[in-house]
Amino acid sequence: MDTEKNDNVITIFIAGDSTAANKTPEVYPESSWGEAIGQFFNEKVRISNHAMNGRSSKSFVDEGRLQAILDQIKEGDYLFIQFAHNDEKEQDPTRYTDPRTTYKQYLRMYIDGARAKRAIPVLLTPVNRRFFENGKIINTHREYYRAMKELAEEMSVPLIDVCEKSRVLFERLGEEKTKEIFLWVKPGEYPNYPNGKQDNTHFSTKGAVEIAKLVVDGIKNDIDSPLKEYLKDNA
Question: Model's pTM, two decimal places?
Answer without folding.
Answer: 0.95
